Amino acid sequence: MSASRVCALSDLEQDAAIRVEVDGVPMAVVLDSNGEVHAIGDTCTHGDISLAEGFVDGDTLECWAHGSAFSLRTGKPLNLPAYEPVPVYAVTIEGDDVLIDPTVTKK
Ligand code: FES
C-alpha cells in the first residue's frame, strides 16, 4: 500500500489537531509549534474518544475526557488513566501535500 494524501499542509493550524481517515484508519494529524507534522492513532486507548478533539501542548496531544497526554513522537501516554500507547504513523510532506501510509507505523 502506498501513502495517501490526507490534507494540504496549509489546512493545518499550528498546535491544533484534525481527524482524518486513511483506508478506514482514524488518525489525529498535528502541526506542532516547530512546524513538524505528526500523525497518531485518533482513538484514545482509555475510552472511545477522538484525540483530535483534545489539546496540543508541545509534542503531546491531551485527551479532553480524562487528561491523558499522548506523545506525538512515541504514541505513549505520559500520564494515567490511559496506559496503552496509540500507533504513530510516518508522515511525508510533498510540496503542500501531507501523505500518510496507514500500514507504516514508527512505533
Ligand atoms: S477517554 Fe481518554 S483519558 Fe479517558
Automatic annotation (TrEMBL):
Magnesium in keyword set: no
Span of domain Rieske: 4-100
Alphabetically ordered keywords of this record: 2Fe-2S, Iron, Iron-sulfur, Metal-binding
Coiled coil: none
Domain of life of the organism encoding this protein: Bacteria
SUPFAM superfamilies: ISP domain (SSF50022)
PANTHER family: 3-PHENYLPROPIONATE_CINNAMIC ACID DIOXYGENASE FERREDOXIN SUBUNIT, FERREDOXIN-RELATED
Name by which UniProt lists this protein: Non-heme iron oxygenase ferredoxin subunit
Originating species: Microbacterium alkaliflavum
